[in-house]
Amino acid sequence: MALIGFKNTHNQSVYVNPVQVAYVTAFEEDVTIIALAVTGAGGKPVALYVRGHVDMIQHKLGGVAPRPAG
């Protein structure tokens, strides 16, 4: 699957493989967290903070990353 490009909160380009997305959730207005199914130090998922509303990010990812309940 092709990588999908986003801008992070530091205006840097980041690329995500949608297959590796664990979940997508809102952080602030127009900032979304993409959590990957990859663990970092401490055993927590690697998270990317990207620019864009959560619904737009999910649409761009192809709807494969549901928001967690809560």
Verbal overview:
The protein starts with a strand and ends in a 10-residue tail after the last helix. The strands form 2 sheets. The protein has a 3-stranded antiparallel β-sheet with strand order 3-4-5, with helices on one face. It contains 1 helix and 5 strands, in the order βββββα. It has one domain (4-60). The longest helix is centred in the C-terminal third of the chain and has 7 residues, at 54-60. It is globular and about 30 Å long. With 70 residues, it is mainly beta.
Key features?
70 residues; mainly beta; two-stranded antiparallel sheet; 1 helix
Helix content: 10-25%
H/I helix tally? 1
Q: What fraction of the residues are assigned to beta strands by DSSP? A: over 45%
Number of strands: 5
The helix-strand sequence is EEEEEH
Which strands sit side by side, in order, in the main sheet?
A: 3-4-5
* Multimerization state: single chain
Unreliable spans are none
Query: For the report, how would you describe the main beta sheet?
Result: 3 strands, antiparallel
Q: Which overall shape is indicated by the principal axes computed on the Cα atoms?
A: globular
How far the N terminus sits from the C terminus, by CA atoms, comes to 30 Å
